[in-house]
Amino acid sequence: MQSHIRNFSIIAHIDHGKSTLADRFIRTCNGLTEREMADQVLDSMDLERERGITIKSQAVTLDYTAANGETYTLNFIDTPGHVDFSYEVSRSLFACEGALLVVDASQGVEAQSVANTYTAIEQDLEVLPVLNKIDLPAADPDRVAQQIEDVIGIEATDRLLVSAKSGEGVDDVLEAIIRRVPPPAGDPDAPLQALIIDSWFDNYLGVVSLVRIRNGRLAKGDRMKVMSTGRAYDVDDVGVFTPKKKSRPALEVGEVGYVVAGIKNIDGAPVGDTLTHAYAPCSERVPGFKQIQPRVFAGLFTVDSDDYEDFRDALAKLRLNDSSLNYEPETSAALGFGFRIGFLGMLHMEIVQERLEREYGLDLITTAPTVVYQVLTHAGEELSISNPQQLPPTGEIDEIREPIIKASILMPQEFVGPVMQLCMEKRGVQKNMAYMGNSVQMDFEMPLSEVVLDFFDRLKSVSRGFASFEYDFARFQAADLVRLDVLINGDAVDALAHIVHREQAYDRGKALVEKLKNIVPRQMFDVAIQATIGTRIIARSTVKAMRKNVTAKCYGGDVSRKRKLLEKQKEGKKRMKQLGSVEIPQEAFLAVLSTDDKD
Ligand SMILES: Nc1nc2c(ncn2[C@@H]2O[C@H](COP(=O)(O)OP(=O)(O)OP(=O)(O)O)[C@@H](O)[C@H]2O)c(=O)[nH]1
Fold it and tell me: What ipTM does this complex have?
């Protein structure tokens, strides 16, 4: 019954206890027996479990018998907390009427929660502040509630206090959801209008889509139509996750559940699209949420060129489950055949690389990530460059524009100085600063390329982990940018080229050459490493030739150490790439990332 449905999401910063609270809800509503309750059912992928982060949003449908004796259907949609995946948060919120803002009562509000709460408020959701981990001695719910009011600006007087770990206060949260989150609107008799919240590929079923029914109903056996493509499919199955998959005859208005319709390709059911009936369609799509653009690109190559075909197959399979993944073939003189892959951010890149290696057994070399540049040529052409190799000769370039982000950093007062200094160093322009209690929010505009470098790590280190960071793409803006090339024994290594600001080129070039000098192993001959801009050499250093048989001397008597060393070498070999006569380890290709590390 529509009046007894509550759709809600949980907004929380990483580690503030969202998954633990979700598990509690499932336990309380008896969605699963204790034994079936694997440690953390919601984080289903192995990789997620290991990293302790939630990558994909998932929905769970629970029956809850409230204190008033009536039974309600609770649909809650889990969301990831990391900035790379904030688009998944906004699309999860799209399907809800309410959101729990879960804040660790011993930590306080973080930038990501602020941003996501604003998204929820913009979408007219009822936001319920929940203070978690009240069992911890360091918990200070009053201070954190005050902070929620100061920093986010929402009323926190009727905050909920819980310990997801012990279960204390969890019932109160469920009751508050029933009382304060409105039931879904929508007309059960109108033509079907359903929003696709997520789609993924299942080896047996094909594409499975998670949908929210806005109007009408969707039943097994219906003929449905995907509105953007106009293609029609027979609905094989609909149902909900409890969190076990449970088939139902139909999904009714206001409900959230899955649809299987024999769609073989993930592009056949794009996230954000609208489903309707083929014979009695609705007139318009559910107004969509923002389409996401990959912002970070890197070249990935197999260590062994024989693995190229496997690599291509693996990427195709991975994309079935990750429609945000973009790739196209790339050829590098240094690394051979590979792919240029577009990612949502650095974390996304790491996860994709790790899945390719772990699930598909590939050995990969990744080049330093780069952002997309707009290049205006004298001929009046506007090019989109996601690979430094594609940059036209300097003489042809009128203007290079780089992506600028709006960044918002939240931190305790004492870190304002070092954080500001870091942002300046990263070519940031301060836009705003607001004091809220003991917290300070600073808004900066900054080139995305600087964030791609090592901004997260540096921010963490200068603020001892207390600063949190959130960003949004703002615009492209012209800047004085040049390509920095690296030559090894006179040969340009295309995979090491990158685009930098002219003012930083000299320092970066010098630091990079020094770093490479320590990474490139000694050979039987001198290896010259040079950094150049155009034809001008800006830095150089030399890896001296090896004297004969150094290892034999060092490890003469100790057999076990020698064996270890050999094993290590074998391990290292896997990640080496032969460049002309010089072997270069994987590390070298990422050296570009951290050349300005001064901490
Ligand atoms: N003491 C205490 N620890 C808690 C409580 N709730 C969660 N934790 C712990 O906090 C850590 C993070 O909890 P998760 O539920 O995984 O956090 P999350 O917000 O889901 O994290 P992501 O999935 O990465 O976004 C875990 O080690 C939990 O055991 C609580 O109420 N009290």
Answer: 0.97
